[in-house]
Amino acid sequence: MFIVFEGIDGVGKSSHIRGVANFLLERGIQHICTSEFGNLPLGKSVRNLMMNYDMTGEEEILLINLIRSYHIRNVLIPSIQANHWILMDRFIESTWAYQHGGKQVPYNIVKKLTDSIKIPKPDLTILLDGDNHRSVAKDKFDKESKDFFNRVKAVYKDRFDQENWITYNTNIGYKAVQSMIREYLAENILCC
Ligand SMILES: Nc1ncnc2c1ncn2[C@@H]1O[C@H](COP(=O)(O)OP(=O)(O)O)[C@@H](O)[C@H]1O
Ligand SMILES: Cc1cn([C@H]2C[C@H](O)[C@@H](COP(=O)(O)OP(=O)(O)O)O2)c(=O)[nH]c1=O
């Protein structure tokens, strides 16, 4: 089971991934928590470059492609082959939301650049919708304007796929949302 958590900065993705990981642990289900920027030393270097250089959206996609391909080969494919659950913080939809929505790279260019990598399709995407709950800015995107995040949110909304996405409004509080995610997994995935 390959689950991706998406949403704007500070909406609660890492907190909910930790919650779901504990839920799986209690049930003895083998899983990994991962992200392109957080898991491997190369990802941390890429994140550093992206956050500390003023880049165009196109340049950001080229940089993200490097770690995306490397992370697929070294983390995602081996975990999928081992039949482990994968809880991933952001994936390709972040590129659509931030580089196409936020930074306004035209659709055809995003498509061309992102199509250069073969992407494993997530079984489920959990889109967290709500405010940035972080009080202090963590990176360059945290400091972007309200308009920027409205465009990011609009692209997430446009790309919402009824087939295998679910969404929750995080403004109702962490506990309520975490219970709904657990309930969804218990009823729709663990039961089968
Ligand atoms: N629903 C919520 N309401 C208020 N604060 C929250 C909520 N979910 C998470 N938080 C807090 O918001 C901050 C950012 O959460 P985090 O999980 O790091 O977000 P992300 O991974 O999306 O950037 C953390 O301090 C977390 O404890
Ligand atoms: C994966 C990805 C992330 N990003 C941005 C979103 C975040 O602002 C930033 C860092 O990602 P991340 O470390 O996941 O930040 P956060 O915990 O705040 O959600 O990188 C893109 O712009 N495009 C992408 O494809």
Automatic annotation (TrEMBL):
Reactions that this protein is recorded to catalyse: dTMP + ATP = dTDP + ADP
Record domain Thymidylate kinase-like: where: 5-181
Molecular function (Gene Ontology), one example: ATP binding
GO biological process, one term: dTDP biosynthetic process
Alphabetically ordered keywords of this record: ATP-binding, Kinase, Nucleotide biosynthesis, Nucleotide-binding, Transferase
Residues noted as binding ATP in the record, renumbered to the chain: 7-14
The keyword Zinc-finger belongs to this UniProt entry's keyword annotation: no
Extent of the signal sequence: none
Any Pfam family matching the protein: Thymidylate_kin
GO cellular component term of the entry, any: cytosol
EC number(s) recorded for this UniProt protein: 2.7.4.9
NCBIfam families attached to this UniProt entry: DTMP_kinase
Family statement: Belongs to the thymidylate kinase family.
PANTHER family in the cross-refs: THYMIDYLATE KINASE (PTHR10344), UMP-CMP KINASE 2, MITOCHONDRIAL (PTHR10344:SF4)
Role of this protein: Phosphorylation of dTMP to form dTDP in both de novo and salvage pathways of dTTP synthesis.
Name assigned to this protein: Thymidylate kinase
Species per Swiss-Prot/TrEMBL record: Candidatus Cytomitobacter primus
Gene: tmk
